[in-house]
Amino acid sequence: MTNSTVHRALNAKNINPNILKAQYAVRGEIAVRSEEYRKALQAGAGHRLPFHSVISANIGNPQQLDQKPITFFRQVLSIMEYPALIEHEEIFPEDVRERARVLLEDVGSVGAYSQSQGAYGIRKSVANFIKERDGFEANPDDIFLTGGASAGVHTLLNTICASRNTGVLIPIPQYPLYTATLALLDATAVSYHLNEEQKWSTNVELIETARQNAADNGTDVRCICVINPGNPTGSSLSVEDIKGVIRIAAKNHLVIMADEVYQTNVYDGVEFHSFKKVLRTLQREEPGRYDHVELVSLHSTSKGIVGECGHRGGYFELVNFDPEVKAQIYKLVSITLCPPVIGQCLVELMVNPPKEGEPSWELYNKERNHIFNGLESRAKALYQAFKDMTGVSCQNPDGAMYLFPSITIPEKAQAEARSLGKQPDEFYCLKMLDATGICVVPGSGFGQVEGTWHFRTTFLPPGTEWVDRLKKFHEGFMKEYSD
């Protein structure tokens, strides 16, 4: 039988149509092409390309871009993987071995399943971290460990979305995990725009208008998602912004899903404010008014100064949820048995790092400060570069790992993009990749106000040479397509 006559059970026309609907720009066409270039360079075919390296500025993947792991974390994890190492005091400091002992007592073995909700001792450490951060109690039984924050988002949206009619308010621009997951669930994404001129802040009137319009069209809006600090915007919400969202949720009986994975990535003296702390403060100030507000907040080991994306660790905390709903969430996570146990251990290390006076403190503090200061300085350098570029404007980065500059694309370039079936910013980003090897994500993959164009770039890549490449490309692009 020839290949032309093979009849397979599956083809692109009969698989789940919701998979075909889902879009995830962060790893889309531009990222795929960048990997083809990377392979060509590795195969020695670089003489055919106008650049000598590929810069993966499309995704927040710190250790791919030369961020070094924290020594204390990896030392403890080494013992977790091979417990016999715990006896070698000449290799590891005592606090490393003691932490490994505590974790081994809790999980037994990282090769064994844990409780579906996550190991209790680790959840207790997370609860202590939240209490110290916010000044309000946290209950380990309300905390679910996850295989990264993305797994938590999937779990929660699967719980919230009952039908195609279920609506979830999503910030625009947004991280496409949310719209992609809603597409898979055949639920409805209800967009609300952030205010670019006001440092990508939330706007209560825009949120309420979006919610009301959706409700008028028959959508059952149940949840509002907020990313703070922002991805892709790099913004950090004020207390008043957060209070505005909570008041909308209280008035309209919305679940708040607070994606707070970048909470340690805040710069220039900006303070991170958790939704949990602001909600508990409002409950204390106005007794009874906010007691019914349901909040779920998420955190991850992939971002911050940890940057351990591949270990897949994270958690979410449920606040004010109906116990029967929590029981159903437990049942749902039980279907996948448990999150990766080594990732759970990394969560414990993230929320309970070495303390001053302990043997590993000095090195941990040095490494942490080096990573943080490097991120902050690169953010400022890239922001300054954008300020100096023709037709580019950008908000000063408050947090996260990204900048989301607005770019003016000449009409001539827009026309060429349309002739190729591309969005203008997608066309721009493809041109950038082909000329420089720099991979970024077009703003159309995150959503943007109609008629505006953006791209998202991380500031994780080391050095400034790649920034010079970007500036040179941009000026050439603007000159080539100027009217």
Task: Describe this entry's structure for a reader.
By secondary structure, the chain is of the alpha/beta class. The protein is built from 16 helices and 14 strands. The protein has helices at 17-21, 29-42, 71-81, 94-107, 120-134, 149-160, 177-184, 204-216, 239-252, 275-285, 323-334, 341-351, 361-387, 411-419, 424-436, 465-481; strands spanning 55-56, 143-146, 166-172, 188-193, 220-227, 255-259, 295-300, 314-319, 392-393, 402-403, 406-407, 438-439, 441-442, 455-458. Helix 5 packs parallel to helix 12. The termini are far apart. The mean pLDDT is 90.
Helix vs. strand class: alpha/beta
The string of secondary-structure elements, in order, is HHEHHHEHEHEHEHEHEEHHHEEEHHEEEH
**Strand order within the widest beta sheet:** 2-8-7-6-5-3-4
Mean residue pLDDT: 90
| Strand percent estimate | 5-15%
Topology:
Layout: H1 17-21, H2 29-42, E1 55-56, H3 71-81, H4 94-107, H5 120-134, E2 143-146, H6 149-160, E3 166-172, H7 177-184, E4 188-193, H8 204-216, E5 220-227, H9 239-252, E6 255-259, H10 275-285, E7 295-300, E8 314-319, H11 323-334, H12 341-351, H13 361-387, E9 392-393, E10 402-403, E11 406-407, H14 411-419, H15 424-436, E12 438-439, E13 441-442, E14 455-458, H16 465-481
Parallel strand pairs: 1-12, 3-4, 3-5, 5-6, 6-7
Antiparallel strand pairs: 2-8, 7-8, 9-11, 10-14, 13-14
Helix pairs in contact: 3-4, 3-12, 5-12, 6-7, 9-10, 14-15, 15-16
Brief characterization of the structure:
This protein has 483 residues and is α/β, with parallel strands linked by helices.
